[in-house]
Amino acid sequence: MGPGRLTCALVLALMLAMGSRPQEQLPRESHNLNWSKFSGFWYILAVASEGQRFLPGRDRRKLGASMVEVHKVGQLKVVLAFSRSQGCQSHTLILRKDRKKAMFRNTCAYEGPEPGEKDLGGVEGFHVLSTDYSYGVVYVRLGRAGRTSKTLLLFSRQNTSSFPSMKKFVDICEILELANGVTVLPKDASCAHTILP
Ligand SMILES: *[C@@H]1O[C@H](CO)[C@@H](O)[C@H](O)[C@H]1NC(C)=O
Ligand SMILES: *[C@@H]1O[C@H](CO)[C@@H](O)[C@H](O)[C@H]1NC(C)=O
Question: What is the dihedral angle through the alpha carbons of 112, 140, 25, 6, rounded to the nearest 10 degrees?
């Protein structure tokens, strides 16, 4: 049993213990996640989503990117850049720290698209489900109330993935029933680098 499978089994065991169905209960990010350490520039190497509207046609796909900043006390600023059918687009989210849980939520703090940005339709929450700070499996829900789609992103500090990080990503996709929607993005960093400082 490899470490990926072991984690998968543990998460499933936790879900069963909590008596909820897998698609409704997510693994929670670790309570001791160090957000400062998680900050900075990330490539997005793979995407898994219920809705394919997030991705452009095959010939236009490129690596995505994210810039994560601890903005001020209790606030996280997350910029996401993706190549979409309309071209390379970035989105900025401001998330607030939950008072009780070790996570950031997008409550009423969504600022909407900045000039030149495309509205993603709102992003609810930003959950790091697994990380060793060289990779991260990040869960976001995109869309508006009632019409959201779950999306899982594979973050990496490098433009190539390691086998264990990809395995972890795929394992979590399976738990979230997103395994059919996994897309590994082609190694073209031209869009990703648009959000480098
Ligand atoms: C969190 O990470 C930062 C940056 O790597 C480090 O300076 C800090 O000591 C860490 N905090 C804890 C509580 O580990
Ligand atoms: C990936 O990163 C390496 C090291 O930073 C760089 O040499 C290489 O050109 C990059 N590849 C792409 C496709 O951006």
Answer: -160
